[in-house]
Amino acid sequence: MVEPAEEQPLGYLLHRVASTLRNEVTATVLDPLELAFPQYLCMRILSKAPGRSNAELARELSVSPQAMNIVLRGLQGRGLVARPTSVASGRALPAELTRDGLALLKRTDAGVRAAERRVLGRLSDDDRDALKRILAAVGVD
Fold this sequence. Notes:
The protein is mostly helical. The protein is built from six helices and two strands. It has helices at residues 10-30, 37-48, 54-61, 65-77, 99-119, 125-138, and strands spanning 81-82, 96-97. α3 (54-61) packs across α4.
């Protein structure tokens, strides 16, 4: 017997949708660009908030600073992210997307939107837009 959606835990439902969307985006958009999902998320955050440190990015993506450092180094190695070698005070190195990073991120936009439409294909355009508005409203600190 299938449990009604209203009775299923929200966390489970969110996880199911997030996993499906991640798999679709990775297979159809990111893999052809040789970009990992954590790298994509890091670039997306830096496009909205340039200058974030490794620690800030790690907190936002709920990964360890060590894991985020690997992500950032991979992006730096491809010339998609730039960080200074040192800073005047403190140890945090602010990361920013390079022109190549911004261009690659822009190339993902149409594919990511198409993946969203495929995953959420059972919803009307209005319902899809409402879902995004709701998730954006509750995901704010």
